[in-house]
Amino acid sequence: xxxxxxxxxxxxxxxxxxxxxxxxxxxxxxxxxxxxxxxxxxxxxxxxxxxxxxxxxxxxxxxxxxxxxxxxxxxxxxxxxxxxxxxxxxxxxxxxxxxxxxxxxxxxxxxxxxxxxxxxxxxxxxxxxxxxxxxxxxxxxxxxxxx
Length: 147
Known about the structure:
The chain has 147 residues and is of the alpha+beta class. Helices cover 41% and strands 31% of the residues. The protein starts with a helix and ends in a 5-residue tail after the last strand.
């Protein structure tokens, strides 16, 4: 019985260590903060990876059914993009062009090669699927000038 408890404790410790390493990997790449607003005017912060393409920052997710920020952006595409403590007004544009999507995916794979291992591990244990067909990629365009 004691041996079984030691094995169970070791397995739990190993699992906890792997989850901790996965979280550290996720945070090791460049992470931005996206500020979104819901229909009631409440604001939310979401930490995301970002790549730059065609002079614009891009964010995305492979399983939008497990996110709330995508739904908020669909309802209100004007967001605040915070990078290196600088906040800017941006308008979210969802990408449809397959060539652009392929290029942005390649940029993600190149920039976040190691952190992606942590992300994929957490998605597996969390039951989140990585479905390229449902993937959402969003260009963050500058807000139109007011005046």
